[in-house]
Write a structure and sequence with these properties.
Protein-Tyrosine Phosphatase, Chain A, five-stranded mixed β-sheet, globular, Prot-tyrosine_phosphatase-like
């Protein structure tokens, strides 16, 4: 009987730990939104109408991985800050920006972020690529585990570029 009580307690604690109150597991209107880790939402492009949903959902900071040129008609920084949220930008245009320097900057942004935080790019792919490289180079995950982490964050078409960098290692020239 004692082992049954322990099993029930462990199951209840595990279930309680699956979500954090007030932290959205997804934002339905935001493209490709998912929650890959506690206090973090990964997503695709934000549009002006998304900012209010993000704020209402309890997000406290937005980390934008897109260059300004991708959304010339939307001043995301101004919109996010006007909504009372923190904003940070690490512009990544594509595979050539998947560098150790940018991964370390991404890691620092996540460490310093007001939680819950939304991290996004155009589709979630660059977010996933950076998460995979961070998982390997900063957190010490194996390449396969890092790719799985990246996929949970949104990694898709940049997987080959990420694998190349993981094979070359964090100190390789150009990475």
């Amino acid at each position: 009987m004692k082992s049954l009580h322990i099993a029930v307690l462990v199951a209840a604690l595990a279930a309680a730990g699956c979500t954090t109150p007030g932290v959205p597991t997804a934002l339905p209107a935001v493209a490709h939104a998912t929650s890959p880790a506690p206090g973090i939402v990964s997503a695709g492009r934000l549009v002006p109408a998304d900012v209010d949903e993000v704020r209402t959902a309890g997000i406290r900071q937005v980390i934008d991985l897109t260059p300004d040129a991708e959304t010339p008609d939307f001043d995301e920084a101004a919109a996010v800050q006007a909504a009372g949220l923190e904003y940070a930008n690490l512009p990544l245009a594509g595979p050539s920006d998947l560098t150790r320097e940018n991964v370390l900057a991404f890691d620092q942004l996540l460490r310093d972020a007001e939680r819950p935080v939304l991290v996004h790019c155009g589709s979630g792919n660059r977010v996933g690529a950076m998460a995979a490289l961070r998982a390997a180079w900063v957190e010490g995950q194996s390449p396969d585990d890092a790719i799985a982490t990246g996929k949970a964050w949104g990694l898709t078409s940049l997987e080959d570029a990420v694998r190349e960098r993981l094979e070359a290692g964090p100190g390789a020239t150009g990475h």
